[in-house]
Amino acid sequence: MNGSEPRVSWLLAVAAVLLLAATGCTSAGTDDRRGDAHSGLTSSPAAGPETPTESQTPQDPVLSPRPGEVIELDQHGPEYVFTKAGRYAVRLTPELEYEVDAPEMWEVYRGRYFSTSDFSGGTGVFSVAGPLTEAWLPAHPCRDRVLVPVGPTARDLADALAAQSVLDVTRPKAVSIAGGHGVYVEVRIPDRVNSAACQGGGVALFTWRRPPDWWELSAGNAVTYWILDVDGQRLVLAGFCETTCTDADLEVLTGMAESVTFTHHH
Q1: Which residue, among 258, 217, 260, 259, has the nearest Cα to 241 in the 3D structure?
Q2: CA 57 to the chain's CA centroid
């Protein structure tokens, strides 16, 4: 992984849970902090994107689509690959795949999870989950992981997240991506939350599996969700930064989300 150990840890967590880990047990209200309904996570105006590494050479394969070509990522091949800027396809199920525009020299873990690398600059992780035929929230994100079912639509899941205690969630906003309609929300855990006080050592957001693999969030971090209904299926696009997203990071993650298209194979 060429020295990107924090990102390795994050990608391994994503592969198991499709998100982060750890936090605690206080309550926060719902607000709408986004100054721009189009952008993404709450940004930091100070620092710019990280500077790409120039002195190293990637040891993992580098994929390079030709103009107009879409490369389907191999989920059974190399653990990590790098992307030259271009169009890539990711298989979600045998019948469903999505395409996305990947930035220059991002890395992909197991053919599914995109992240910045030492060679790309910036910070961010992008992934797509679904279809989510069912979904559950914990009875309490910190104290009680008893499964509470939510309705079948994108709006049902977004509204349920926004109503949870502990989570600081922006007001759900309508979005249209890839021919589907849904909602955009940002979920944040306040810095004051202490994960050691929570059941399982973290703040649980939601799950779509039984037994549950909880999507979790660390104190001070935030994740952006584009929750969509596409051809009767609920799909979740997620963008995350290991540190506070810069405006440049937000632009890249939002651009990836808005470039997504879905294809059904029958």
Answers
A1: 217
A2: 27
> In whole angstroms, what is the distance from residue 149 CA to residue 90 CA?
28
Q: What is the pLDDT of residues 83-115, one digit of tens each?
A: 999 999 999 999 999 999 999 999 999 999 999
Amino acid identity of 117?
S
> Which residue in the block uniquely carries the two structure tokens 């989950």?
129
Residues linked to residue 138 through DSSP beta bridges, in sequence order: 147
Radius of gyration of the CA atoms of the chain, in A:
18
Model confidence at 80: pLDDT above 90: yes
Reduce the DSSP state of residue 199 to 3 states and report it.
Answer: helix
What is the spatial distance between Cα 99 and Cα 104, in angstroms, rounded to a whole number? Answer: 16
Euclidean distance between CA atoms 145 and 89, whole angstroms = 35
Helices (H), the chain: 5-17, 154-163, 247-259
* Pairing assessment for the beta strands 113-115 and 125-129 based on DSSP bridges: antiparallel
Taking the alpha carbons of 258, 249, 244, 56 in that order, is the dihedral positive or negative? positive
Helix, strand, coil distribution of the chain in percent, nearest 5: 15, 35, 50
Alpha-carbon distance of 52 to 229, in angstroms, equals 36
Q: Cα–Cα distance between 122 and 127 in angstroms, integer?
A: 17
